[in-house]
């Protein structure tokens, strides 16, 4: 008898030790992957550089709302970015520091929230899934608010669970209320989680005391007032709202031509929130686990189902109402609770197996669920540096160009051009502000304008500014509009665009001119380079990558169109 009792104690202690080791390994792995991605120090993406230019050039007061490029960002988050660059300087590491901290802090909070609500074993799976989810990994190294969205979501969930479990503790309600107010200021998507929190509290209320109802009502009123005030003062800017609805039109369920198309968008949106590459098998496993987990939560307690499924359900409703696009980076707020549902699904599936094989079945199901995210996360960690390197192209230009040589900058690349050609150690922001304001007048999102509907003739002559001891020309919009999750309405530039830009460039050549193309499209680049080669350009220097390039072109009369086309590789560019 004593021997049996002793064996049981040692067995439980061994399992506990292995469990703690697995938990620590999950959190350490997630943090390590995020730090690795952060330390890569890659160039800013176009959406990052548009927000970064605003943050670098404006005071905290002027950033509410963000003045240029129709960037809809929560006030507290943009202020955090602003103070980060004040302390650490204008660079990628300072701009991405707050998202990194948020991404790392999410991991232990997921464990805490899941352990309190669905138990330690599902909580361990949820922690692993959150740790290696590729989309959250990337968001933690982007100068955008998406990792903060996830942190706000999981913090509110954890505090909601605690308030429901111990409703008599006044401190629990106070902390939940404060966290909700902070979440409204930090995350545009926070209302989805707050509404789910309020719904879970209401469902869990049952025959509870009047004081419980009063506290729940007070929370809802305070949160609603805070969000409505912020919406009226910041988010309701009509230009931004109109543009973002147009930009994200393909991510709104009601904009789809059929129910099947809407279902496909919802599917792709959910999968893109977890995975960054098309993985039908991995996506199917995640969706199945989420569905099973929802049933399991509902059987255990309805308020759990409301709390975990609420953010995703409300995001889908908002997408149908064209209020919020679903999927990809915008869906990061739903990932933590979806991961908890998926982990609950794994637990339910494991319990349906024969008891003697339950542990083995659970391990197999967990491995299947985590396999695709793990593979993608490892691939992200070990992959070569991005082929799109605006920073390197701008560095090559600054190293090779003489101060007296003019330069032409592709319109979509102006935010990056500003970020990497400005000496941020000085207080002079006259030039970058001039460029940002000029390109903002060309259309939303750094000249990301729709087709003109007519031939381009004589445009852009006013987009000529002093730079070093020469001039810089800002390009005009091509008419090939970048849109989220869908191809552009027009694949080729507007008629006459390339000839118009070539005319502006040739006029400035003395006889040398630089052409810097950042975040360009192959169709526009092909037409522009072909026009320049036909006009007699001779390429004396070229630095080209996938979506960024810099060319020194000389119009010295030594016309050789074939060698120019070979130097620019124009004939191999495909739309």
Q: State Rg.
A: 27 Å
Give the tally of β-strands: 6
Kindly, what is the distance between the CA atoms of the first and last residues, rounded to a whole number of angstroms? 77 Å
The share of residues in helices is: 55-70%
Sketch the topology as an H/E string, one letter per element: HHHHHHHHHHHHHHHHHHEHHHEEHEHEEH
Number of helices: 24
Average predicted local confidence, pLDDT: 87
Structural class: mainly alpha
How many domains in all? 2
Strand content: 5-15%
What is the strand arrangement across the widest sheet?
2-3-1-4-6-5
Form type: elongated
Give the key terms.
single chain, 575 residues, mainly alpha, Rossmann fold, 2 domains, 24 helices, 63% helix, elongated
Description:
This protein has helices spanning 2-39, 46-57, 75-88, 92-95, 97-118, 120-132, 134-139, 146-165, 170-186, 190-205, 210-235, 238-247, 259-274, 280-300, 302-320, 335-352, 358-382, 390-400, 414-421, 430-440, 444-447, 497-508, 522-534, 561-568; strands spanning 407-409, 464-467, 470-474, 512-518, 538-544, 548-554. By secondary structure, it is mainly alpha-helical. The protein has two domains: 2-39 and 96-382, no CATH class; 390-572, Rossmann fold (3-Layer(aba) Sandwich), CATH 3.40.50. It has a six-stranded mixed beta sheet, sandwiched between helices. Helix 6 runs parallel beside helix 17, helix 8 (146-165) packs parallel to helix 10 and helix 14 (280-300) packs across helix 15 (302-320). The mean pLDDT is 87.
Structure in a nutshell:
The chain is mainly α and 575 residues long.
Per-chain topology:
Blueprint: H1 2-39, H2 46-57, H3 75-88, H4 92-95, H5 97-118, H6 120-132, H7 134-139, H8 146-165, H9 170-186, H10 190-205, H11 210-235, H12 238-247, H13 259-274, H14 280-300, H15 302-320, H16 335-352, H17 358-382, H18 390-400, E1 407-409, H19 414-421, H20 430-440, H21 444-447, E2 464-467, E3 470-474, H22 497-508, E4 512-518, H23 522-534, E5 538-544, E6 548-554, H24 561-568
Parallel strand pairs: 1-3, 1-4
Antiparallel strand pairs: 2-3, 4-6, 5-6
């Amino acid at each position: 008898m004593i021997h049996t009792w002793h064996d049981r104690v040692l067995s439980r202690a061994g399992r506990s030790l292995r469990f703690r080791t697995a938990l620590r390994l999950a959190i350490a792995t997630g943090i390590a992957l995020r730090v690795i991605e952060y330390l890569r120090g890659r160039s800013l993406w176009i959406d990052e550089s548009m927000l970064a230019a605003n943050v670098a050039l404006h005071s905290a007061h002027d950033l509410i709302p963000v003045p240029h490029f129709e960037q809809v960002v929560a006030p507290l988050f943009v202020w955090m970015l602003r103070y980060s660059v004040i302390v650490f300087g204008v660079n990628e590491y300072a701009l991405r520091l707050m998202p990194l901290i948020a991404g790392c802090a999410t991991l232990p909070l997921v464990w805490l929230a899941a352990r309190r609500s669905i138990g330690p074993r599902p909580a361990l799976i949820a922690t692993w899934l959150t740790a290696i989810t590729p989309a959250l990994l990337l968001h933690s190294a982007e100068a955008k608010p998406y990792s903060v969205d996830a942190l706000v979501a999981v913090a509110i969930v954890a505090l909601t669970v605690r308030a429901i479990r111990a409703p008599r503790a006044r401190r629990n309600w106070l902390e939940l209320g404060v966290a909700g107010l902070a979440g409204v200021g930090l995350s545009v998507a926070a209302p989805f989680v707050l509404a789910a929190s309020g719904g879970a509290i209401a469902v869990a209320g049952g025959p509870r005391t009047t004081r419980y109802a009063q506290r729940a009502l007070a929370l809802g009123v305070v949160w609603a007032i805070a969000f409505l005030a912020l919406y009226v003062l910041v988010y309701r800017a009509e230009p931004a709202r109109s543009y973002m609805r147009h930009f994200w039109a393909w991510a709104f369920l009601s904009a789809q031509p059929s129910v099947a198309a809407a279902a496909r968008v919802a599917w792709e949106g959910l999968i893109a929130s977890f995975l960054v590459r098309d993985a039908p098998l991995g996506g199917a496993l995640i969706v199945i686990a989420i569905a099973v987990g929802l049933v399991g939560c509902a059987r255990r307690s309805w308020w759990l189902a409301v709390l975990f499924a609420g953010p995703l359900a409300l995001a889908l409703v908002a997408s149908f109402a064209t209020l919020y696009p679903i999927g990809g980076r915008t869906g990061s707020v739903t990932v933590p609770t979806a991961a908890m549902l998926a982990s609950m699904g794994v637990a339910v599936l494991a319990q349906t197996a024969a008891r003697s094989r339950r542990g083995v079945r659970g391990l197999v199901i967990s491995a299947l669920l985590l396999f695709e995210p793990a593979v993608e996360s490892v691939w992200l960690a070990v992959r070569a540096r991005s082929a799109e390197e605006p920073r390197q192209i701008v560095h090559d230009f600054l190293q090779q160009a003489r101060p007296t040589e003019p330069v032409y900058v592709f319109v979509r690349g102006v935010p990056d051009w500003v970020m990497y050609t400005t000496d941020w150690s000085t207080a002079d922001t006259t030039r970058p502000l001039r460029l940002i304001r000029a390109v903002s007048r060309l259309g939303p999102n750094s000249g990301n304008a729709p087709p003109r509907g007519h031939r381009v003739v004589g445009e852009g002559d006013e987009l000529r500014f002093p730079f070093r001891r020469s001039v810089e020309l800002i390009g005009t919009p091509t008419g090939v509009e970048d849109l989220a999750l869908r191809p552009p309405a027009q694949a080729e530039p507007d008629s006459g665009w390339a000839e118009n830009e070539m005319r502006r460039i040739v006029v400035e050549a003395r006889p040398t001119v630089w052409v810097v193309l950042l975040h360009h499209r192959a169709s526009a680049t092909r037409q522009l380079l072909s026009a320049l080669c036909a006009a007699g350009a001779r390429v004396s220097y070229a630095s080209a990558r996938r979506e960024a390039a810099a060319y020194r072109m000389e119009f010295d009369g030594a016309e050789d169109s074939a060698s120019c086309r070979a130097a620019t590789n124009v004939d191999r560019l495909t739309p």
